[in-house]
Design goal:
about 110 residues, 10 strands, mainly beta, six-stranded mixed sheet, four-stranded antiparallel sheet, about 0% helix
Length: about 110
């Protein structure tokens, strides 16, 4: 029923930037707490950032100061702005509606020279 559709991934060089978007449908997005996760091959899925319906944010230590999670409720969209990207940021990134099994399809981010 609920759909989360991601876009904005791709290949960038170390030090570059990308912005991921996740558009929600068939839900009252403005009331949802949202998060971004990532998973690299052979690694566990890890929480990258989260944002509450009220706009409070939290970040993994590995991305603090480089990534920013935000939301634009009028567009039913949550963003992940990723700056100063490092090779270790390479992973498939997933948006998630907190407390549910609703996930985006996953989008590849590759940081490489």
């Amino acid at each position: 029923q609920v759909q989360l559709v991601e876009s904005g991934g791709g290949l960038v060089q170390p030090g570059g930037s990308l912005r991921l978007s996740c558009i929600a449908s068939r839900t009252f997005f403005q009331f949802a707490d949202m998060a971004w996760y990532r998973q690299a091959p052979g690694k566990q899925r890890e929480l990258v950032a989260e944002i509450t319906s009220g706009g409070s944010t939290n970040y993994a230590d590995s991305v603090k100061g480089r990534f920013t999670i935000s939301r634009e409720n009028a567009k039913d969209t949550v963003y992940l702005q990723m700056n100063t990207l490092k090779a270790e940021d390479t992973a498939v990134y997933y948006c998630n509606m907190r407390g549910t099994m609703y996930w985006g399809q996953g989008i590849q981010v590759t940081v490489s020279s």
